[in-house]
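Recap for those who missed Tuesday's class. We walked through two folding examples back to back. For each one, the amino acid string is listed first and its predicted structure tokens come directly after. Nothing is annotated here on purpose, so try labeling regions yourself before you check the end of the notes.
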Amino acid sequence: MAHLLNTSFIPTLARNPTAPSLISCRRSSRFQVQAKIREIFMPALSSTMTEGKIVSWVKSEGDKLSKGESVVVVESDKADMDVETFYDGYLASIMVEEGGVAPVGSAIALLAETQEEITEAKAKATSSSSPAPAPFSQETKIPENAAPAPKAAAPVVSASSAHPASEGGKRIVASPYAKKLAKDLKVELARVVGTGPMGRIVSKDVEAFAAAQAPAPAAASVPAAGIELGMVVPFTTMQVAVSRNMIESLSVPTFRVGYTITTNALDALYKKIKSKGVTMTALLAKATALALVQHPVVNSGCRDGNSFVYNSSFNIAVAVAIDGGLITPVLQDADKVDIYTLSRKWKELVDKARAKQLQPHEYNTGTFTLSNLGMFGVDRFDAILPPGTGAIMAVGGSQPTVVASKDGRIGMKNQMQVNVTADHRVIYGANLASFLQTLAKIIEDPKDLTF
């Protein structure tokens, strides 16, 4: 992840120049002392990220660091990412503790080149944290934080020996929501076996452990999701990003077109190749991409309100619900990739999404979005258009339906409802109608989906 942090550690001198008198009197030693203490900045892990939350510190204060080694796990608006160092040295002072929030570009810790500079770095961290403690945590009220700010440095030392996400120096990997849930349910994460990717602990692991440990009556009295009725819950970083995007979408003039598609042939194909690892999501994404190739305007996007772009790739983003939010992993070049590879890629993306390990290009490169609630028995719904894209399609479940044929006969067919929400500045009703007719033909005769 080092490439995400090209200027991870910047010399203190470059960021916060000292007064002229101090420079003149210490000119001979400025490179011996000041250049050896570097600030660790909150990195920008995505184009929309304005602040980040510290999920866990992989290293503790006083630990020796080697170039390329992971130092901290940061939660952006979309994923959790390990941040690496470009320098050798010692983690001298942690300025933003686990759970704290800091703006992009602000200092979250100090790195000393040698052990001799650690004391000086701690003193610098204490003095620099006094003027503005508020930006580091959106969950703390300003009046409570403003007065005792100098005392914030004290817990840094005591907490460094054993952070909540580590045990004896060994890191326990868990999603932020799983950690919160463990705290609410009084579950010790060290005793929980993770079922996520690479053994990561997710919320269902905590819930299962709590249910197994507690007596039946007690388990029934605890809300399944660790929810305390009446409590006020601040938005997570991801929820802030979702809220911002939804508000931005209100400025786009949209319209909706619905269509009924018979799915008997698609259902038969899915049943035939499901054992080979093919997913229905991959089939729908493939069918959508092939239809978009014939109607590129539906795959276009408008960002500035004055022009739009015909996207050169047909990348299908698919909405996935995860702990505390929503994300849209992207199946890139879905029109070109075979259905078996596409299905394997989709399963990989879902696992990474639920572990909050998606890379930016895996969730922000979509050109058309699918939202499927059919697996929940939903027959129809409308979806909100993601900013910067031309259209999103809401897919309902396939249901047995009594239909009349052209010759007047009555029969049963499996049918699903799809509703497309589109940007009316770029896409018009006729465009969507033609696209949906093409999509219906592909789904009702799906031979091209397995080429």
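Example two. Treat it independently of the first, because the proteins are unrelated.
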Amino acid sequence: MASVSSSPCSPQAVLFLPLLFQPQPLPRCRLPRLPLPPLGLSAGARRGGGLLIPLTLPSPRAADGNDGRAVAKEEEVGEDSEEEERGAYDGARETEGAGASRGSGRFAADYVSLGIREPVYEVIEVKSNGRVSTKKISRRQLLKSSGLRLRDTRSVDPSLWLMNSMPSLLVREQAILLNLGSLRAIAMHERVLIFNYNSPGGKAFLELLLPRLNPRNINGGPAMPFQLEVVEAALLSRIQRLERRLMHVEPRVATLLEVLPNRLTGDVLEQLRLSKQSLVELGSRAGDLKQMLIDLLEDPHEIRRICIMGRNCTLDKLSDDVECSVPLEKHIAEEEEEEIEMLLENYLQRCESCHGQAERLLDSAREMEDSIAVNLSSRRLEVSRVELLLQVGTFCVAVGALIAGIFGMNLTSYLETNSWAFWATTGGIAVGAVAGFFLMYRYLKARKIL
């Protein structure tokens, strides 16, 4: 009995033939070209004792023709079948992609259905005309209106104030992100959004910004661009807060420095500790703001990005020069660049002055602490000397008490019958104690212990 291991319509027909029978003829068919199977015995052949004989079947149409045209036609049919297979594969891939997109849409819908709320910020919006309004804006709307990326909002997100305590001024294409202490704001071309507007930094910023936007306060001079007004008001409010804290701490520290050398009490030392803590915090904040201004001044690219904000200008990637479609705008941008540098230099000097004064007061407080430590050490040394003298005197008296205890025993010594024995013994104990004390004192003096 013959067993066929592959379809009869394959280009290679592998027949399993028992040794006792002859192979049967195969039907003619039009076949695609497939790779040759390896020669050898199959598992059934090894079990049944048959042979695995590869037979190559001639193409029926090629056998009928004599000029080779049937072979060419067969190859064309094979190519058509391959193209149909590729078209079917591409259609399957398109169907799979459409299914994936529908799946992603279902995933997004499932994400929304989970009840995860998008963060919503309550901000104060101040426009360039001075109009103030309170509004609630979601994170998606904020990113869409300001052209920011999600990672850019980390510096101004009120929920991340513990992680973003360092002052920063980030310049983007359409917005400037301000993080100056408790002030978190996003300044754009025609408006500014203020987070945590009830904080001390937000209130001080609004008090300085709103009068600048009033046309009556311009006094006929040229007005600065809105984003520069926002940046200047933010820096000014921050530095003024630092200067007010310095003016509050400085008199108190000066008073403590005058009182402390002669008056060491717990209340005075506690006031010195609190003043020193305030100076450390003030110096740290002023130093961070100073470093931010220095970094900004050393990066002219950021300053030029502030100048071209809201204008039809770009920066050359190679030379970093300002290129504008209107020559007048380029001239205005260059003038604003100089104004921004002068503005930053001015506030840098004020910040350095505040930081330097805080450091000087802190050094004075630390020197006073060192003086107090030396004074307390000298007092502890005096106490230790007195304790040592008392211990020496106690030792000498203890020797006399030992002699008195010996005579207090109820044993007969034949001295109790003499009237002079009591006075002689008492005088000897007293003289011996005093002599022992002076001898110990001279020894301690010679060893420089006292």
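Answers for example two:
The first helix runs from residue 43 to 48.
Residues 1-27, 34-114 have pLDDT under 50 and may be disordered.
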